[in-house]
Write a structure and sequence with these properties.
six-stranded mixed β-sheet; single chain; six-stranded parallel β-sheet; 19% strand; 2 domains; Glycerate 2-kinase; Rossmann fold
Amino acid sequence: MTHDHTKPPSPRTVALDCLHAGIDAAQPREVVRRTLSRDGSMLTVAGETFDLDDFSRVVVLGGGNAAGEMAASLESVLGEHLTHGIVVTDTPAETTRIKVRPGDHPLPTERNRDAARDILDAARDADSETLVLAAISGGGSALLSAPADGISLDSFRTVTDGLLRSGADIHDINTVRRALSSVKDGGLARAAVPARVVGLIVSDVIGDDPSVVASGPTYAGQATPENARAVLHDFLDAIPEDIETTLDGRETTAAEPDEADAFERVTNHVIADNWTALNAAANQASEHGYTPLVLSSRIGGEASDVGRTHAAIGVECLATGNPLDPPAVLLSGGETTVTVDGDGVGGPNQEFALAATREIDRPGIVVAGIDTDGLDGSTDAAGALVDYETISPEQQAAARAALRNHDAYPFLDDRNALIETGETGTNVNDLRAVVIGQADDDRDERERKRTSDGRRWTS
């Protein structure tokens, strides 16, 4: 993506190229190539080596946004040693031995539930001579979803939707999902006992806790009914009766001795995370002649607050050279939230970008943010890109109204500010870039005139 210019390319070009580089680096095929290799029957997984001839079967099971591409990549690595497999994803991939089941995100549906049940059945069919490679990624909390006995799918969907709209963070949401599921919170690994299980995790959560990614299907149980009930009562006005009844009747699922024994043959490897994307984006910025600085990979909170803060740092950078002299790129990752109170259409990264316009008071600054899975919130946009020209002074009132109503999508769409990647086949959380050029740089305006839509690409 490098450009042959006598001076660094414009902030707009740099922002898009940095985001694109981050997504490319987190592609499952690239990640699997970097972390898994096979020499004959010897399989190496992130430094852990297995002789595939020691197993009568090698099976791939899992789910998430990246699970389809992970399955295709694992087929290529394993070759004839692969027996079969099933994964569920919303981004299909072509495979021969692994069944890639279509699912829906962000709310679970019947086909998610049915696929998850079939995956659990396949895990239960494993024996002590089976190697299970569990392909787990962000999005798996919804896609790999089988409510526990006694809980209806409708109730599970109602609670999930309510928590997503409430502004609860992913840790709180997954505390509930783990307690209400038969596949999460170690459920997949328990079903596979006594098989050897290796979790291959593409993380979309701050801190890369394997118990949180996809709600931890291969990680020893940590959820308790008490914790789940506390989250539900904090964020929801009403809880479905079947969920209350199930939580009341379940004992705390903290690991007992026999529970710990079930995980003796389980290891988990995070093979890609937010830093995978951030490092690639930083390298891309450097190639363009911009100095990169990663602010943090752990930024959460309300998206609009985060957007204004990022833009303010960019303005400071351009005005004073603090914390970097331009041209520079400030990068961050993590996952912000939106507390929705209405019927607006948008997503956290769109709201992040729209709020940033409140602080951009001069040319030379571009602010962009995307969800690396390509779907921000429940929209078909990955996020948005904004600059000084995005909103005119007379449009500021309308912009503030769009923020109040959490209706960023149509407002940004009208101003050609959405970034549309399509489903990317990966998910390593949000990726944001604040690009600072020069105040007298008019190349962004020339690019805007040269292309009808310079902010959209097909990934």
